[in-house]
Backbone:
């Protein structure tokens, strides 16, 4: 492997770990505004979009949505294939991601990663959506971000697995109240509770804008979207 290839792999690994940190923060209900990553590999500075930045670009463009995600359990890991489409341009792209069910700590030991599936799904969605965003749009977005913020925050790969707090229990009425407080029509969804967690299903057709609004509010509460045709829903374990 050439030095250039080694640098490229190192860049990719840093971005992957930084995005995983964002995914965990998002699951814990944090608002993410770190849209651009900036870090150095050797003497070279690398600037690129974070997972939050890709979603922000997608939101500003409009019309981009993830249509389906195929999840495959590989035993010791996950493989997820997602399809994203741009309804305005009539084009679609696929994104794939693989994720181990364990993660390594700084001392080299391995522990179970309880968020491995969520990470894999989010990264597959990221990869699919990213392919639908024009490169010129990304360049302009990054340039504007750097101009407004002076410089991009430095992406630092976590030395150890990020601390994960236990999710707070939410009753169905609390979820409904939170959605109502976000000016969403709660009658458009059905909230169900089971032994494995909570599920929110569309009770009526949700157009792109309405789905995006529900998705944003529910993700803040720890739900993640599962695209499965007529059985598509948000879940929270």
Residues:
């Amino acid at each position: 492997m050439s030095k250039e290839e080694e640098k490229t792999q190192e860049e990719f690994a840093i971005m992957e770990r930084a995005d995983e940190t964002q995914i965990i923060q998002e699951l814990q209900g944090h608002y993410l505004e770190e849209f651009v990553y900036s870090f150095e590999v050797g003497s070279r500075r690398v600037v690129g979009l974070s997972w939050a930045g890709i979603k922000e670009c997608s939101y500003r463009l409009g019309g981009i949505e993830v249509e389906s995600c195929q999840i495959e359990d590989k035993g010791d890991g996950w493989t997820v294939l997602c399809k994203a489409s741009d309804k305005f341009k009539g084009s679609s792209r696929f994104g794939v991601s693989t994720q181990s069910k364990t993660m390594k700590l700084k001392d080299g030991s391995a522990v179970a990663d309880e968020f491995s599936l969520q990470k894999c799904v989010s990264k597959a969605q990221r990869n699919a959506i990213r392919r639908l965003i024009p490169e010129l749009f990304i360049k302009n977005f990054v340039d504007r971000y750097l101009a407004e913020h002076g410089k991009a925050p430095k992406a630092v790969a976590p030395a150890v697995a990020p601390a994960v707090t236990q999710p707070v229990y939410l009753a169905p009425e609390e979820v409904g109240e939170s959605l109502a407080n976000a000016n969403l029509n709660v009658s458009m969804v059905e909230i169900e509770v089971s032994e494995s967690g909570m599920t929110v299903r569309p009770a009526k057709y949700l157009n792109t804008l309405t789905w995006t609004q529900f998705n944003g509010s529910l993700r803040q509460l720890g739900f993640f979207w599962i695209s499965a045709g007529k059985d598509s829903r948000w879940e929270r374990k």
